[in-house]
């Protein structure tokens, strides 16, 4: 009986050892599996995650059309009118004017903003309350949240302007009275300077010479938007700014290329490399005027125009720039 008991204890001991050995083997296998899984994850991370060279992300941005470090400036194709949009590298956005009609805003402006991931506008700037600049803005205000409304506050009976002001009040949008010397905050590194109008406003039957003039700067690249400002206002700005603030890489040509704007002195002072003309195809005003085109060509200024090129979209990293147009072959 004693031998049987010893044999039983020996068998139990062997079983315990076998179980312990099996447990150790299982733990070793689990550890090896964990190491293999970790190695696989590291390999996947190296091959899939963005590679950084110390200055910028080399993979395409996942946000809609948002390019790291690049500002987008577009003159949108709203027919015989003006609408420009700016989207900054960190997603701030501003629209200048809204063209003539709400239909064009629905077809052109809102899709552009959605494409660039804009869900809110920091500013809507109106250069002056003429229909071809203000007409589409009630539709824009209805479609997207706006933080601030920038306005020269010129007396007018334009009904689209009156509707827009009612919406600004109803939606609690901050109104800002635009005057020379003001800066707008569109995020770090982006300069937005209002160069006109100045008090007292020009005593004129036309709103044009009291247009808001805005300069947007990103690094060494700048954009000057002059609304419908004509030669008398251009002369005043030259005298006030002494040319320094007016110099710009891009000029959105005043008054749709009318002969009353883009004077010789103004073009020489601004000294743009590229002219962008917001104008409707076969418009009844004859814009852009032959004289204006000739003045631009004589200075070897590259010309783009929305009637021929459609939407004109500029992207810049602050050093160089790329220009894309909507119409093929343009």
Descriptive report:
The protein is of the alpha/beta class and 330 residues long. The protein has two domains: 1-49; 71-325, Metallo-beta-lactamase, Chain A (4-Layer Sandwich), CATH 3.60.15.10. Helices cover 35% and strands 20% of the residues. It has helices spanning 2-48, 102-115, 131-134, 137-143, 159-170, 231-241, 264-270, 290-298, 306-309, and strands at 71-75, 84-87, 93-96, 121-125, 146-151, 174-177, 190-196, 213-218, 221-225, 250-252, 274-277, 302-305, 312-316, 321-325. An eight-stranded mixed beta sheet has the order 6-5-4-3-2-1-13-14, with no helix packed on it. It starts with a helix and ends in a 5-residue tail after the last strand. The model is unreliable at 1-66 (pLDDT under 50).
**CATH fold name of the largest domain:** Metallo-beta-lactamase, Chain A
Helix/strand order, N-terminal first: HEEEHEHHEHEEEEHEHEHEHEE
**First CA to last CA: what distance?**
106 Å
Strand percentage lies at: 15-25%
User: What is the CATH architecture assignment of the largest domain?
Assistant: 4-Layer Sandwich
Report helical residue fraction.
Answer: 25-40%
Q: Spans with pLDDT under 50 lasting ≥5 residues?
A: 1-66
Question: How do the strands line up in the largest sheet?
Answer: 6-5-4-3-2-1-13-14
* Strand runs, count: 14
Main sheet properties: 8 strands, mixed
CATH superfamily of the largest domain: Ribonuclease Z/Hydroxyacylglutathione hydrolase-like
The structural class is alpha/beta
In DSSP terms (H or I, runs of 4 or more residues), the helix count works out at: 9
Principal-axes shape call: globular
Gyration radius, in Å: 31 Å
